[in-house]
Amino acid sequence: MGRTQQSSPIQRLAQWAIVIALPAFLLLSNVRLLMTSAFLQYEYSRPDFPAATGLSSTERMAIAQTTLDYVTGQADLETLRRLPYREKEVQHLVDVRVVAGRAFAVHWLAGGLLLAALLFLVISPRALRPTQEENSSLWDRLPTCPTVGSFQASRPGTRPLAARGLLYGSGLTLALLVALALFIYVNFDVFFVKFHQMFFAGDSWLFAYEDTLIRLFPVPFWFAAALGIALLTIGEALVVGLGAYVWKLR
Fold this sequence. Notes:
Elements: H1 9-34, H2 37-44, H3 57-71, H4 77-81, H5 87-122, H6 132-135, H7 146-153, H8 159-186, H9 188-199, H10 212-216, H11 219-249
Helix pairs in contact: 1-5, 1-8, 1-11, 2-3, 5-8, 8-9, 8-11
């Protein structure tokens, strides 16, 4: 009769890696999703979106697209400097590119950690295991080997840990993002200021209304982006949580 084994520390660590990585991965996936020309076009086509004084709709879209290309690493600084920005605006966009690059790195890290932890807990290497007859002479002597221990850790019996990790991770995501969405909706001005104070030095992010950055990306643009990211993440967390709950019951 097989023995029921409790999860090992490394299995629990993999479970909590899923819990921690999932919110970051979902949130930053949606940040990246909205850093696209499709979102720019959607916002600029809204009938209530503020007009850009001195710029036609075609000029506005072209400048915004090139700015986005620079921030996401698809255009160089020389290209950015050809746009109608003051030096302070250029320096801010340089800072934005640095922050965006770090966010993309965290996104890849969270995604890699999430995938590795799920694979560790889900994939079953049954083909690598000895037959029942070989267990008494070979397999029982191998748990002290770290590699074999890893094979055992990923047997089907560890899959509920993966499901619980996704369930807890989606719960954590919902708790954080619902609170964030409410805060953004109720007091966006405070959120906007605190966000910039967290990532940018001094008043380097403050500009006059006539500056090109403000004409391209006014406050309503950032409100829609922030709330959209939060709501998309909430929706995805609900889907993941529901799927994890169903999986856990099977």
